[in-house]
Amino acid sequence: MLLASVDLAVEFYKAIITPPIGLIDAHKLYSFFSLILIIAVGYELLKSMFFIVDNSQIPVRAILKISMIAIANKVITLDLKEVSMQTMIGIAVIITSLGISYFMLQFKSATGSDLDD
Predict the structure, then answer these.
(1) Which of 46, 28, 40, 29 has its CA nearest to residue 4?
(2) Predicted TM-score (pTM) of this structure
(3) So where are the chain's domains?
């Protein structure tokens, strides 16, 4: 994760200093944003793994949040010209199932059941 952050900083610096100076094209900007989101997913995953090791519990809510960040990364960086309808339907089903799962988990914890965290 540290190496990815350093790589992001180096690539961003290279993009800024190449002519025309200070301007970054949209394609490179999308790749930078995608890398930032991948680093965020990695950070959350490491945090969850440390939690599992320390507490011997599986943080279901944290895993769902990581999944939501990962699918959001996919949706944000998706090129609609290159994607088939089946892929878009699959992503929609994943988003819907993650939303329903998170809602059910929140509803269950609001009724008094202690599942995680």
Answers:
(1) 40
(2) 0.65
(3) 2-110
Instruction: Dig out the tokens for 64 from the structure.
Output: 């769902």
Written as six digits, the tokens of 35 are: 């890398």
Question: Concatenated DSSP letters for 24-82?
Answer: --HHHHHHHHHHHHHHHHHHHHHHHHHHHHHHS---HHHHHHHHHHHHHHHHHT--TTT
- The whole-angstrom separation of Cα 117 and Cα 80 is 37
What angle in degrees, to the nearest 10, is found between the helix axes of 26-55 and 2-17? 170
* Per-residue pLDDT tens digits for 68-98: 888 888 888 787 888 899 999 999 999 999 9
- Residues 93 and 73: their CA atoms lie apart, in Å, by 16
